[in-house]
Amino acid sequence: MGEAYRKIFWGILILTFHINLGPFQILPNFVGYFLMASASAMLFDRYGFILFQKGKHIAGVLGVLSLVESLFFFMGGSVFAPFSSFGPLLFGVLELLFFYHVLGGYALSLEMNGDKEEREQKLRLQRRVTVLLAVQAGLYFVFSVLYLTSIMAFVLLFSILVRLYLTSIFAQLRREEDGRSLEEHSTGSESADTN
């Protein structure tokens, strides 16, 4: 299942860094969100946890909203104006919910495997990420309601740092999951050899 966490990793990178060519984006945000939805579907198929299914639905909603946002951008600023002020807050809250569910599902999979100590570490990580994303959503809210352009650079820098932190988390989860798969595979082949 390391592949699912790899997809989330790439989805976050696409959300963080995209290239604009005039009005067009190479790998727009909705591609990253749909990639994350696909990864959540893979995790749900593997484990059957409702947390992964909720993550899939949330990432799908984010993808559709991002696609609509892209279409609004092409229609002109007047159509896009109401969405541009509260859109970042909506995206921030939905991203918080997505990562909360996916990290909670990962912790649940560790519990299912009997690794309670590692589960507790991942639950602490889930809380830390939730707090960071809540602060980010709060900053989006303050920025959108009060129109404080003075903190715009800080909000953008904080958002980039949070996303880079998330990419490092999911790179680590991918490595852990790949290592776990190798252990299961080697244990399975050893038991087949003894028979």
Automatic annotation (TrEMBL):
<keyword id="KW-1133">Transmembrane helix</keyword>
<keyword id="KW-0472">Membrane</keyword>
<feature type="transmembrane region" description="Helical">
    <location>
        <begin position="30"/>
        <end position="49"/>
    </location>
</feature>
<feature type="transmembrane region" description="Helical">
    <location>
        <begin position="61"/>
        <end position="83"/>
    </location>
</feature>
<feature type="transmembrane region" description="Helical">
    <location>
        <begin position="89"/>
        <end position="108"/>
    </location>
</feature>
<feature type="transmembrane region" description="Helical">
    <location>
        <begin position="129"/>
        <end position="148"/>
    </location>
</feature>
<keyword id="KW-0812">Transmembrane</keyword>
<feature type="transmembrane region" description="Helical">
    <location>
        <begin position="7"/>
        <end position="24"/>
    </location>
</feature>
<protein>
    <submittedName>
        <fullName>Uncharacterized protein</fullName>
    </submittedName>
</protein>
